[in-house]
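Support reply, case 0932

Customer input (verbatim):
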Amino acid sequence: QVQLVESGGGLVQPGGSLRLSCAASGSIFSIGAMGWYRQAPGKQRELVAGITNNGSTNYADVVKGRFTISRDNAKNTLYLQMNSLKPEDTAVYFCNAEITRGTVIPGPRANYWGQGTQVTVSS
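Our regenerated output:
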């Protein structure tokens, strides 16, 4: 079984910073692309940032220059450094990853989601 667990959310004032983490665990042979998504109340889930297994990144225009996505492949962990936070960044943030299950040989590949972590930007 594979699990993604996010952490690092919370309440922060406008202009502040937070760092989200997403740890993947279980029977993992390899991890491909990973990403952070967010969903605000009454809105659709949207891509915030993505990163390939070789480190190429992409960002939503609204977070470019403020957020940085990174990953530690040795620890199967994804990060999102969020600076200069704005009230409109308030949302539940979800981690997503393409994971190939297995130990010695590769097994099935599937897309996995974390349970989400709340980020609230408010004074």
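We compared this against your earlier run and they match. Two observations from our side: The CA atoms of residues 35 and 50 lie 4 Å apart. The chain has a mean pLDDT of 97. Please reopen the case if you see a mismatch on your end.
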